[in-house]
Amino acid sequence: MSGPNGDPHVLGGGAGDDGGEGGDTFEEEEYAAINSMLDQINSCLDHLEQKNDHLHICLKELLESNRQTRLEFQQQSKQLNTGADVQGSQPPA
């Protein structure tokens, strides 16, 4: 369960259960290390998200290019087939 600031709620005693300040310092260092690791993970995830977005854009462009090329080939094929039909129906000279 989390506290009001999103910090984990620690059951049992709180800071200073051992009667000294050493426990607080260790917890603060531990939280700082965890926060640093989470920041690094977040940074890596942001970088991956940017790469994913870039790849998505590139793939969409490639897909559109392939569609356009396929349409051009289909049109050329139709024109060649139509031209061959016209030549085939005419008597030889």
From TrEMBL:
Stretches for region Disordered = 1-26, 74-93
InterPro entries per the UniProt record, alphabetical: BBLN_eukaryota
What PANTHER family does UniProt report for this protein, alphabetically? BUBLIN COILED-COIL PROTEIN, UPF0184 PROTEIN C9ORF16
According to UniProt, the name of this protein is: Bublin coiled-coil protein
